[in-house]
Amino acid sequence: MNFEEYSGIWVFIEVKDGEVVPVSLELLGAGKELADKRGTELAGVLIGENVTHLTDSLFEYGADTVYVYDDAIFKDYRTESYMKALLECCQKYKPEVILYGATSTGKDLASAVATDLPTGLTADSTILDIEEDTGLLLASRPAFGGNIMATILCKKYRPQMATVRPKVMKALTPEPGRKGKLVEETASLKEEDIRTKVLEIVRHTTQKVKIDEADIIVAGGKGLGSPNGFQLVHQLAETLGGAVGGSRDVVEAGWIEHHHQVGQTGVTVTPKIYFAIGISGAIQHIVGMQNSGLIIAINNDPEAPIFQSSHYGIVGDAFEIVPLLIEQFKQAFNREAVDHV
Amino acid sequence: MLHIVACIKQVPDTKIIKMNPKTNTMDRASAPAILNPYDAHAVEEAVRLKKRYGGTVSVLTMGPPPAVKAIKKCIEIGADEGYMISDRAFAGADTLATSYALTKAIEKISKIKPVDLIICGKMTIDGDTGQVGPGIARRLDMPPLTSVNKVKEINVKEGYAVVQRKLEDGYEVIQSTMPCLMSVEKEINEVPYSSMTNMLKAARYQPIIWAVADLEDVERTQLGLKGSPTIVSKVWAPTKPSGGEMLEGDAAQQTEKLLNILLEKKELFAGKGGA
Predict the structure, then answer these.
(1) Which domain holds residue A159?
(2) Number of folded domains in chain B?
(3) CB of A319 less than 8 A from some CB of B
(4) Residue A327 CA, distance from chain mean position
(5) Nearest in space to A216 (alpha carbons), one of A284, A280, A292
(6) Are A235 and A285 in the same domain?
(7) Residues of A in Cβ contact (< 8 Å) with B245
(8) Which of A5, A27, A192, B244 is deepest in the core (most CB within 10 A)?
(9) Which residues of chain A have a CB within 8 Å of the CB of B170?
């Protein structure tokens, strides 16, 4: 394999309901840094139906080139059709790196593409870097159930690939009117070659507060002792108008549903305020909330690692602290309300 | 009659594994080896489909000899046959080399009895990638169906399956030709306690064990460490942030201090009577 032939940092651009999903823009931001370091170009690969117009915003978010596969066959995401387009694009233009969002679509696609190329694929990366002279991608991720971080390399194959967790990288501020090169491609595939079809897509629109969009999250861990104890978290969240989060342990214990789970195997959140109550602070949890604006930890163990990742810590009994806090908040809100009459 | 192969792995229980804070290595002895929890759901789903449509459930694992225990656990859940590939040549495999080795084993199983469906767990708790299932599917040229949280229909006669795939904010229903490979979410089922009959069967059960030499058309360069494009270059604990300010005092003083800090950010509480 001649590495000289491979150049450029690529981002798979994921589209949902006609819009580019946020993680793809975040990856253009992260990819731009890698491309600048290597002195190479940043490209997006955009696959879908009626998606060509989305390229304008991709240029504004940092892409120098966008390869577009716009065809009715790509209306819904399907592993086989998207994989074939991306494989053909890869073989034609030979990128050095391809990044995908670690979403259900991104992970599905990346796994298939990696096998067919073949090449190495690092899952759920949270830190990316590249060696300036060799182009070796350094993809780091929580490993062994999130107990530790590992840096993964792919030395002998190109392109190097990684899926990257949403909300970890930062999108660039769009530069209005920034232009790039649009390359329209067609994939050599026919509908009858595709062995799956999408019969129905159902989106839940009724979820009360989407945890990954909440400004305030009150999260609880097994330190609360029981589902009953976990009610404290709900009470504080309600008082503050926030969403409820949970650690992996409490989700597995069934105290709260999986879509509330914060951490490596749950969602990554970046609220303005994050309360961690009775959560010890394993790496797999920390990676899911460390970019929050203000992190407040309440735990009865002064040695709990969570205190090292928080802005303010209270060592104490949650069952004493939290009810007091709720009471004081309520009083403060009432005062505010009176002041404004 | 369906022949379902469930791929499983024995893993250290990473939830309770202890880390040596000085060397950043795992104290493997501190964690028991268990059947990967996601794989228990894969086997359970295979058993349920067998009950619904008739057929056989085989389980397959790659691992060192003690991994027989994980196969026995699958027999307890209700699997009929267990296959294990075990050889030093497999050691150090990443997801690509793992999917290659398992594919070779599945090809051999297919010669004993053709395979209609492969089921994997969503991911393992020690690897956390979810890449091996789709890798096997691509190598066997089957459609990979990931994030499956419900199997709606299997039509053996017409050769198709209809499943529900979990998405970030909902689900999609897809139809695929068979044979195909599914990797399943935990929520797809509950694994009940095993029956006494299955437990007795498991206690006596010995799986079929193959070494590399027992498999056919194997390119040794694609196995184990040699066949793995990815390598772990370093393992590290994130530099610990210095930590923030601890709020001291009795409970009332602590909460008072916190309240004052938070009220400075009262714009966040706009909906609750803040300014």
Answers:
(1) 3-193
(2) 2
(3) no
(4) 36
(5) A292
(6) yes
(7) 311-313
(8) A27
(9) 201-204
